[in-house]
Amino acid sequence: MGRSEVQVLAEAPNASRALAGAHRASSAVAVRPLAPAVWTRPNNGSRMTQGCHVRFCESAEVQSLRATHLVMGFEKEADARRMMADLRDRLAKFGLSLHEDKTRLIEFGRFAASTRARRGERRPETFAFLGFTHYCGRTRDGRFIVKHKTQSRRLTRKLAALRPEARRLTRRPPAEQHRWRVSVLSGHYAYFGMPHNWRALNGFLREVRRIWFNCLRRRSQKTRPMPWSWFEQIGACFPLPQPRITYPWTPRAA
To answer: By CB count within 10 A, which of 75, 95, 112, 181 is most buried?
Structure first.
């Protein structure tokens, strides 16, 4: 039986939305879809029933070939903690366990900032999911919104992977190098072009330009001392696409 990792997050005492994130490694246990749950709302206002809410069924021909991520949100902190306990117990039946470093319970939501400020604590925590860092923010008219920015670790890893390929193309014609960089930037904008993420997109463009500049300077001894103004002239002939937001602006009403 393979090992497993699961993440979990925390909840605000007011109506602040708590999140629970889960990361489960691949295992040989097959799963099947869950049957519709029937529940009644308890007297304490919780939307969760008193039974176990985690079901990993065993009779389907489905397997997880790679790690999966899960984020769960709860209105009440007690529900989030009970869910994490049920999940830990259920995984233990299959020889799996929660990854302590990747399992968090955090306070997140509309009232998280004000609640933490009253307790003298800093702003709400953030969490990373699908390459984005999610954090609490406000619109211009003061409404709560979940903002996204490129995860710094993902951005660093992407740039580290681009440098060897850029050096390999150093001797290729500038037009071919330009086409490759255009495809890299277009793909990056298509995935990470979320509202409020323009600054990270622009930072990625600057780094791609800097990598190209260093590669061109290494083509020969004559180009090594060339200044940045020389590269600007090349950039005018082979312009790179500018950052753009590819996802619609659809803020949810608070």
So the answer is: 112
Q: For residue 208, is pLDDT > 90?
A: yes
Token pair listed for 163: 């440098």
Ranges of each domain in the chain? 18-125, 152-237
The whole-angstrom distance between residue 149's C-alpha and the CA centroid of its chain comes to: 8
User: Position of tokens 């939305």?
Assistant: 17
Cα 246 to Cα 158, 217, 251, distances in angstroms: 19, 33, 15
Question: How many CA atoms lie less than 13 Å away from 183 in the CB half-sphere?
Answer: 8
Angstrom distance (rounded) from CA 241 to CA 89: 50
Structure-derived torsion over alpha carbons of residues 83, 84, 90, 96, reported in degrees to the nearest 10: 160
Rg of the chain over Cα atoms, rounded to whole angstroms, equals 24
Share of the chain above pLDDT 90, in %: 26
Q: Give the C-alpha separation, 158 to 146, whole Å.
A: 24
Other C-beta atoms closer than 10 Å to the C-beta of 180 total: 16
CA distances to 18, 38, 40 from 51, in Å? 20, 11, 11
